[in-house]
Amino acid sequence: MPPIKTTLVGSYPVPRWLQATPSRDSLRDAMAVVVKTQELAGLDLLVDGELSRFDFNHPETNGMIEYFLGPMSGVSTTLTRDDWKAFHSRPDMQFRAQPAAVVTDDIGAGTLNLEQDYLRLQALTERPTKFTVTAPYMLAQTLFDRHYPDLQSRTMALAQVLADAIRDINADAIQVDEASLTGHPQDCSWAHEPINLMLDAVANDSALHLCFGNYGGQRVQAGFWEDMVPFLNNLHVGSLILEFARRGYDELEVFKDVRSDIALGIGVIDIKDLEIETPDMVASRIERAVSVLGAERVAWVHPDCGFWMLPRNVADGKMQALVTGRDLFSGTRSA
Fold first, then answer.
1. End-to-end CA distance of the chain
2. E strands, 81-172, where?
3. Could you point out which of 64, 100, 123, 226 has its C-alpha 20 to 30 Å from the C-alpha of 141?
4. Of 225, 235, 254, 223, which is closest to residue 190 (Cα–Cα)?
5. Which residues make beta-bridge pairs with 130?
6. Model's pTM, two decimal places?
7. How far apart are CA 133 and CA 156, in angstroms?
8. What pLDDT score was predicted for residue 53?
């Protein structure tokens, strides 16, 4: 692989034929298209597009919440009016119409089978692959809890279930996705513990994706990267996959204080904008990150978040710009 590698954060726009006729065969066909599209674009680490998670009823998050919580035991997706009102009174969750589920007992795996979904991806390519899993903190925030005494214990219970679910997945990398903690720095003093429980279960390379939210194409968390540094330095992680293109690059200096053994991934593609970046723009963003952090620290370039909300032609154009811009920066391809 080149010194600076390219990957997607995880999701890809759901092909219309899969939405129209969802079936096992349609899902496989759609995943094959997504994998081949990444191969043709020249990406270094491939994902499954998270297509198996798509849920008509939850288009705002493309199933990244309900897909994990729905199969678990100890939670119920049947909500009373009182559940809805109690959850909706929380000021930090106003962007969600209702809780993802209600916790009624000890949380267990239930019928959750992540390995099955990874094997679908593994069968479609011989290239290096990455599997993505929503972080336990983010999942815990979306629940209305009638069982655990606090957020921390609820998050640890979810982390144990997810760690067991990924333990036998032999992907080249497993990425944990967290888009809520950035807006709740007060929980950073303990949030590394449940996430490390998952990261320690990863067989090969591990990554943590952090952003400030992408709920229906909107940012939902207000915060600053500098507030996250102590948390980041407590992680047992190989790489960080970070949002920057939308926010700008003024906060790059902060990451000089992150442990040197943690590789950094820099977002150079804005997924909240339909304009397709030029290769020159991508190359200049990489140049700025390298000039601040050093070439030895910048290991990955990627979009800020998932592509699920974009039209396919825009996502494909941004993917091509990502690779061409990286190659332009690296001097392996002319402008």
1. 21
2. 101-108, 130-134, 143-145
3. 226
4. 235
5. 173
6. 0.92
7. 15
8. 87
For tokens 């939308």, name the residue: 246
- Separation between Cα atoms, residue 55 and residue 64, nearest integer Å: 9
* Structure letter (DSSP) for residue 226: G
State which amino acid sits at residue 26: S
Place of tokens 């969750």: 93
- Written as six digits, the tokens of 191 are 């949030």
Strand partners, 242: 210, 266
The two tokens of residue 45 are 């680490």
pLDDT of residue 90: 65
8 Å CB contact between 220 and 183:
yes
Residues of the chain with pLDDT under 50: 334-335
> Nearest Cα to 34, choosing from 127, 153, 165?
127
Distances (CA, A) of 295 to 3, 5, 80, 289: 8, 12, 53, 8
Question: Which 3 state secondary structure label does DSSP give 151?
Answer: helix
Measured between alpha carbons, how far is 320 from 298 in angstroms, rounded to an integer?
Answer: 20
Strands 73-76 and 101-108: antiparallel
Rounded distance between C-alpha atoms, residue 254 and residue 252, angstroms: 5
Among candidate residues 223, 289, 222, 288, the one with its CA nearest the CA of residue 255: 289
pLDDT score recorded for residue 216: 57
Alpha-carbon gap, residue 123 to 125, rounded angstroms: 6
Token pair of 219 as six digits: 């940012």
Cβ(222)–Cβ(315) under 8 Å?
no
**Residue 131 near residue 48 (C-beta atoms within 8 A):** yes
* DSSP element (H, E) containing 35: helix 24-41
Chain centroid to CA 56: 20
Measured CA to CA, the distance from residue 300 to residue 45 in angstroms comes to 10
Max CA separation in the chain (angstroms):
61
Q: At what angle do helices 24-41 and 114-122 cross, to 10 degrees?
A: 50
